[in-house]
Amino acid sequence: MRKPLVAGNWKMNGSSASNNVLLDGIIAKSDTFASVDVALFPPAVYLHQVQQALAGTGLFWGTQNLSQFNQGAYTGEISALMLADFDCDYVLIGHSERRCLYAELDLDQRVLDRIVAEKYEMSVKAGITPIICIGESPEEHAVGRTEEVIARLLDTVIAYQGVEGLAHTVLAYEPVWAIGTGRSATPEWAQDVHSFMRQRVAKHDPTIAESLRILYGGSVNSNNAAPLFSQPDVDGGLVGGGSLNADEFVKICQAAVLKLG
Ligand SMILES: O=C[C@H](O)COP(=O)(O)O
């Protein structure tokens, strides 16, 4: 049985004061979801605050991005080694908001997937578990290209790092049309796509595929979390808006506990 994981991506939200309220509310109820993994992803400037608050609670923390480089003249970037300095457990890689809003192209304008694969390699080497986000755009969804898009990215990561790296990786299916729209994928749709992802990895290594955690992300809330998480190949959620309110996020974490029966 894969252990469910609920990841709260705060995106560019919060302040020192509001973070304290949110953290206190989550920590106060953490014994009600102690049987699942829960990780928080604050903006990088609040990483120290979150690290201090979560130390000793059993909750995990991470960041929303990292550089594909180790160090040097990369203004505004944060390396995997720096994240390891903060004992980061996880890092989000390839979130659609990075891909779409910040056009993560390299100097040769090579495809985004290669950047994702390079970041993946950096995080694995630093001992930080990457959560690789993939999903189709509304346009791709409309013309039925979901599996093609997902297969392309998965194959790029596997080709670049080898399937072995996926043993230490989490995948997140994040259909772009569901992010921040209030329009979640149905549990059935999520299950079909997650199953496709697992089967794609299984072609390379069935054992790794079986143990691979695949999260669903896109308008997860306290009403739809339980039906989504109950699907056999949905191993938890990557939650944006729903992670900004302690009561709401705690309910989502508790929904993941139900999966354990
Ligand atoms: O990282 C989280 C996802 O982008 C989902 O965001 P959302 O829950 O606000 O739709």
Automatic annotation (TrEMBL):
What biological-process GO terms show up in the record? gluconeogenesis; glyceraldehyde-3-phosphate biosynthetic process; glycerol catabolic process; glycolytic process
Q: Which reaction does it catalyse?
A: D-glyceraldehyde 3-phosphate = dihydroxyacetone phosphate
GO cellular component terms, alphabetically, are: cytosol
Q: What class of enzyme is it?
A: isomerase
- Which family is it part of? Belongs to the triosephosphate isomerase family.
Q: Which Pfam families match?
A: TIM
Q: Which UniProt keywords apply?
A: Cytoplasm, Gluconeogenesis, Glycolysis, Isomerase
Give the domain of life: Bacteria
Its recorded name reads Triosephosphate isomerase
The metabolic or biological pathway listed in the UniProt record of this protein is: Carbohydrate biosynthesis; gluconeogenesis; Carbohydrate metabolism; erythritol degradation; Carbohydrate degradation; glycolysis; D-glyceraldehyde 3-phosphate from glycerone phosphate: step 1/1
As recorded in UniProt, its EC number(s) are 5.3.1.1
Quaternary structure, per UniProt, is: Homodimer.
What positions does UniProt annotate as the active site of this protein?
95 (electrophile), 174 (proton acceptor)
Organism encoding this protein = Methylophaga thiooxydans DMS010
For this UniProt entry, what is the primary localization, expressed as one broad class? cytoplasm
PANTHER family assigned to the protein according to its UniProt record, in alphabetical order: TRIOSEPHOSPHATE ISOMERASE (PTHR21139:SF42)
Q: Where in the cell is it found?
A: Cytoplasm
Which residues are recorded as binding substrate? 9-11, 180, 219, 240-241
Q: Which Gene3D superfamilies match?
A: Aldolase class I
